[in-house]
Amino acid sequence: MAKSGEGRSRDLWVYERIKHGILDGTFEPGSTLIETAVAEWCQVSRTPVREALSRLEQDGLVIRNEKGVGVRERTPDEILDLYDTRISLEVTAARFAAQRWTQMDQIRLERLSATAAELPESASPVAMAAANRDFHRAVWVASRNQAVIDLLDRVNLHLMRYPMTTLKYPGRWPQSLVEHRELLDAIVAGDQERAMRASEHHFTAARAIRLELWADE
Questions:
Q1: Whole-model pTM?
Q2: Is 121 left (phi over 0), alpha (psi -120 to 50) or beta?
Q3: Domains and CATH numbers, the chain
Q4: ∠ CA(110), CA(162), CA(202), 5° rounding?
C-alpha cells in the first residue's frame, strides 16, 4: 500500500533530523546508531528510523558494521578524496558556466559577490559559509549541467561533516572574495581556460587549509 502524504512527510522529517544530527555532531563519527534509541530521540516508531538509516547509508553518511549502523569516520585521506573530486567537478562547472551563462546568471553572481563582500572578517562562520555556498551554487546553476550539480551536492554533503569552515582561517575570507571575483570575471568573459584555472586555484587553496585545520584538531 502506498504511503499517505502524512507518512511521506514524517519519513522525510525523520531522515532530515537524523542527517542533521550527524552533520552537527550530535551523533559523533564512529558512534553506533541504535534504532530504538534513535526512534526515542525522534519520538517515532522504529520503521521510519530504519528507512532513514537505509537512505543515509546510500548517502554515505553511515556504514553497516559488525555492531549495526555506524556514523562514518572522518579521516585526512577522505578530505583529500573529497577535495580532489570537488576540484574536478567545480572546474567542470566553471568551464560550462563560461560557455552557457546568461544575463540573469551574471546579475545573480554579481549580487551574491557584492553581498559576500559586505561581510567583514569578523562575521560569523555560518554567515560566511552561507554567502560562499550561495555564490558557488550560482556558478553551478550557470553551468546548466544537472549531472555535475547533483554530484557536487553529494560531495558537499560529505564536506559538511567537517564542521570548521576554512573561511575563518586567518586571511582566507578576503582572499576568497578576490578569487570569487576572478572566477566571476572569467565566466562573464567566456574564457573557459581562465575560469577553470580560477576555480582550481580557489579550491586547491581551500583543500590545503582544510588539511591544516585537521592537523590542528
A1: 0.84
A2: alpha
A3: 5-71 (1.10.10.10), 76-216 (1.20.120.530)
A4: 35
